[in-house]
Here is the input.
Amino acid sequence: MPELSVVIPTYNRLETLCAVVPALLANDLSAEHYEIVVADSNSNDGTAEYFAGISTRHPNVRYVPGGYSGRAMARNAGIAAAAGEIVLFTDSDIIASPELLGRHLEHHRLERGVAVVGMELQVDTLAEYERLRDRPEVRRPLHPERRRRLSWLYFLTGNASVRKTDLERVGRFDESFTGYGHEDLELGYRLQAAGIRILYEPRAVNYHWQAIPYDEQKEKMRLAGRSTVRFYRKHPVFAVKARLGMTALSLALHGFIRKNPRLLARLERAGRDRSGFARNVVYQYHYVSGIKDALGNDRA
Here is the structure.
């Protein structure tokens, strides 16, 4: 039996999977210690045919298709199918470093009652991935390497592992999160509330290969805002509102920008011209728009 099951949800991501799966298979952990479980929401881009070929050469790669309504349901199907005691979550557009699996497994072999989150680096292209892979000194990670503990706010399932028994104990992913965002943070919240310590392992590196167009990212932020309200209604405590930016100040700033359409138009143009500050403000504006949509007070 494998010790570790890598669970990957996917839908029509064959192009990136062709880089993701070989990287996992090339990791430093011996094949008998891990398996790869791909939960596919019935892709129609050749994904099934790709895994039919891969599985014949690598029996530790398992393909689990189904009519999954979102990433939460797909990941739950992967958890149910997992044979390993440890479940490592990643995504179909994230390329693993050779040490990724071993670094996660090392922590779980040493102690129970922990979840492990690794270092996830954002890259737009394969060339940028290769540059960051080969030149660690130019990396800009989210957390400093000396950090050892994280809160549920950083339980991001592009690079996170936890015991299957702990997942079963807290109830896996909440499948009511069918839109974009927060199904992983909400699981992290429940894990932490159940006494699971979330550890940071900076040596477990992977590379999130995605180049999201400006307008698409704005829509994702709006959907994430809607998921924030779902999260808060499930866990109506101040810490959730504060950490997810659902505060009186953020709502007031949104209202100010909305009442000044010229200012919003200038910010939108500057963001399209790749001004980092303007993009962040615009993304936050659309995020709070999603919050207000879900609250039913978008005119506030």
Observations:
- The longest helix spans residues 214-234.
- The domain at 4-209 is CATH 3.90.550.10 (Spore Coat Polysaccharide Biosynthesis Protein SpsA; Chain A).
